[in-house]
Amino acid sequence: MDFLVGLQLAKHEDKRKRKGLLLISLLVNLGFLVYFKYTNFFIETFVDAFKLFGQPLEISTLNIILPVGISFYTFQTLSYTIDIYRGKLAPTKDVLSFFAFVAFFPQLVAGPIERASHLLPQFYKTYTFNYKLVKNGLLLIAFGLFKKMVIADRLAVVVNQVYGNPGEYYGLEVIVATIFFAFQIYCDFSGYSDIAIGVARTMGFDLMKNFDSPYFSKSITEFWRRWHISLSTWFRDYVYIPLGGSRGKNYRTYLNLFIVFVVSGIWHGAAWTFVIWGVIHGVIIIFEKALKRPKQKLLALSGLAKQNFSANLLFTLCTFSIVCFAWIFFRANNISEAFLLISNMGSFDNASSLYHLGLEPVELRLAFIVILLLILFDWFHRKYGALKWINQQNLAFRWASYVLIILGILIFGIYGDLEPKEFIYFQF
Question: Which end of the chain lies in a sparser environment, N or C, as judged by fewer CB atoms within 10 Å?
């Protein structure tokens, strides 16, 4: 449908016809997305609403199989027709290239969400073997596998134990599990992105960067410039700006931001927990926008005179704490369990040893060590660029780095002896 709509958009200059064609693309794409992903959510919400008024309904949900990655490739193909409609992209007549763009296997199921203007022209080229690209791509794949198999899947054991039994854990147990989930989802998703970008790079294709050390952010606004970049920029260009962006009065800007983050929450999953997660981020960003110069004002309130190391650390820790609090709703099975976990988090009297969270003592210590290594690596990567820096070293150092990464995956990776896990974002 999008391929045909793109060709028709190039043939017509009449605004009404062009809007009609764009509407067809929007209805087809979003119609499929709503049916597969949100039909049961709407049914359950409808039934729950009647229960509140004492009128239980006997309506069952449908047995719908969700196509893997539908949220990602739906947004990817929408960018194609919208950019043609806006005059930013010429439609392709090359059927093979178009469908290769839609179904490009490295990033098909979990992104990055590529723009047609960036990825589609790359299918017109002829590629030859490039040793440098293959080497860089394989190194990036190794980094991604390390994040996923050594860090994310190890932390998942504790996270699943606590969030699967929310009434049994308290205080530090819930806090540690929540922090572990923050790093689990980061390593899981950025690890997938690294693998996807690396696989594409070995074949000569360039995919956009999807993460930029988000947990070093000093505000929620900055966090969303660094987290899932392909999605946040998509919402900016195709939702926020068409709504009016920040061009109108303040209240309108705040409303636009709020809508974007509610939609972002719904995009992540058909549950009210995801909506609340989006609302939390939206409200904080509106608050930061309203302050205009939030860092300077918060510095004045905290008594710190300028943005030195202490101030930056304070902002980073505050931002990370807010992000972790929002992650509770993202990870919890439902709203009641999310609030139960928050309630239990403040109760330290009933807490027991962290060694009862599913990991053996050695494995738990290793979990803390790999988190620390990840923080140091991200700091180093932001400052020097890890891939670039490694490639600038001598032959012995480079190969020692490659061997250490591979040995780390082979020795410390989770292969099912604890609990194998698929990529988190496959469900979206």
Answer: N
- Please tell me the distance from the alpha carbon of residue 44 to that of residue 253, in angstroms, as a whole number: 32
Domain termination residue (choose one: 124, 141, 166): 124
Spell out the residues 6+ positions from residue 166 whose beta carbon is closer than 8 angstroms to its own.
Answer: 332, 337, 340, 341, 344
Using alpha carbons, list the distances in angstroms from residue 305 to 272, 318, 339, 372. Answer: 41, 18, 37, 30
Tens digits of residue pLDDT in 264-310: 999 988 889 999 999 999 999 999 888 876 566 666 655 555 567 78
> Are 156 and 90 within one domain?
no
Angle at 76 between CA 214 and CA 239, to 5 degrees: 70
> Which structural domain, as residue segments, surrounds residue 204?
133-423
Q: Let me know if 405 is exposed, middle or buried by CB neighbors in 10 A (0-12, 13-18, 19+).
A: middle
- Domains contained in the chain, number: 2
Known catalytic residues?
268
Same domain, 67 and 179: no
Asked whether residue 428 is assigned to any structural domain, the reply reads no
Taking each helix axis as running N to C, give the angle between helix 2-11 and helix 95-102, from 0 to 180 degrees, rounded to the nearest 10.
130
Boundary residue ending a domain (124, 149, 164): 124
Residues 6+ apart with CB under 8 A from 217: 223, 225, 226, 227, 316, 319
Q: How confident is the model at residue 51 (pLDDT cuts 50, 70, 90)?
A: confident
Mind listing the pLDDT tens digit for each residue in 209-255? 999 999 999 999 999 999 999 999 999 999 999 998 888 788 899 99
Q: Say what the pLDDT of residue 121 is.
A: 93
pLDDT per residue as tens digits for the range 305-339: 556 778 888 889 999 999 999 999 999 999 999 99
Q: Could you please report the per-residue DSSP string of 196-261?
A: HHHHHHHTT-------S-GGG-SSHHHHHHHSSHHHHHHHIIIIIHHHTTTSS-HHHHHHHHHHHH
Is the CB of residue 143 less than 8 Å from the CB of residue 187? no
For residue 243, the one-letter residue type is: L
Instruction: Please name the residues in contact with 12: beta carbons below 8 A apart, sequence gap of 6 or more.
Output: 18, 21
- What does the pLDDT read at residue 118? 92
Give the amino acid at 288.
E
Whole-number pLDDT of residue 55 = 76
Query: What was the pLDDT predicted at 91?
Result: 93
**In terms of domains, do 39 and 81 share one?**
yes
